[in-house]
Amino acid sequence: MSGSSTAAIHADRDVYPSRAVARPIYQTAAFWAEDAEQFARAAVEPRGHDFYTRYGNPNHAQVAAVIAELEHTEAAMVTASGMAALTTAVLGLVSAGDHVIGPRSTYGGTASVLRNLLPRLGVTTTQVDQTDPGAFERAVTPRTRLILVESPSNPLLQITDLRSIAAMARAHGVLTLADNTFATPLNQRPIDFGIDLVWHSATKYLNGHSDVSAGALAGPAQLLDRIWDVAVLTGAALGPFDAWLLLRGIRTLPLRMPRHDDNGQALAEALSGHPAVSLVHYPGLPSHPQHALAASQMRGFGGVLAVEFAGGYQAADAFTGRLTHFRRSASLGGVESLAAHPAAMWRGMLSEQDIAASGVPASLVRLAAGAEDTADLVADVLAAADAITESTAR
User: Fold this and answer.
1) Is 54 a catalytic residue?
2) Which residues, given as ranges, of the chain have pLDDT below 70?
3) DSSP string covering 46-98, please?
4) Are 255 and 72 in contact (CB under 8 A)?
5) pTM score, two decimals?
6) Which end of the chain is more exposed for a tag (fewer CB within 10 A), N or C?
7) Strand 144-150 relative to strand 99-103: parallel, antiparallel, unpaired?
8) Which of 23, 47, 189, 204 is catalytic?
9) What is the pLDDT of residues 178-197, one digit of tens each?
10) Catalytic site residue 47?
């Protein structure tokens, strides 16, 4: 198996090869066949790329080959967004009457799938404390078919013991699906710890340039074929040009990710102990309650950190407003730094009760460190935090 940088550049070399150095864009909705037999075969081939782009496209196949290699999986597939990856996966793996377990503190879209979408379809769900492996096992029932994990979690950066959850799920005959968006395969490969499937909001680090909405799933071909059937029916297809952009972004992922890691670590260390800050959530800090676990299953700790401000909601809002190099935005993983205030952002997605149940304080700001110079980002956050302290002292 090649190293990550080599895989990112060459893992798709034999997938629809051509003499072009840069991959061509297959900007077509359909493909013609030589004869009826070829047409019929292309129409039913799982994750097919020679029939109709809703079923698959050569650009899909190329980027999927690279993602599979990076995640150490048999196969991969791409979708129109990260939420399309999650929903098609869940709908492809569970049915009415089944039971799904997920984390209590998780991305708002994932929480909404667990709390709103699946119960409407006759699927029961349980959300547990993802920092407690025993909580997952206690929640297992005879009808449990799937366990969702997210590590590090959004936005509290909580860590799940992937080895423990994978072993327990296998013992009970339950599938596992891990959100690897924050870590990326450069910092963590859930499959290496026994997790069955991995999904990404490829909009984030995989693409890395904030110009594509995309999702990705990686795992055994047999499971992906089941999910692909649902993706075809729901129309969750990624456009060819977006797939091409995603592949272009992944080419530089091994170059970008170490800078994100370094900047995230530097920001977390700089803000820890600042008088305006009550707590910094970042698994790379020794003060993080799961630092040792994170170090055992991650090679880097990522560019996302969460900061709680002593002055509550108003201080958090003031901090984001004073930043210069960070733009206020809901996303993350691009080369530019972004800041989000989840308590404000999630109000359109979750109820006040659901936000409170997630454990996300109103004073928390999520910082996504980009690829700018570390010194500039550190100076920016310290200046904004100092301004809050001075304002409070008046």
Assistant:
1) yes
2) 1, 346-352, 355-358, 393-394
3) TT-SSSBTTT--HHHHHHHHHHHHHHT-SEEEEESSHHHHHHHHHHHH--TT-
4) no
5) 0.95
6) C
7) parallel
8) 204
9) 999 999 999 999 999 999 99
10) no
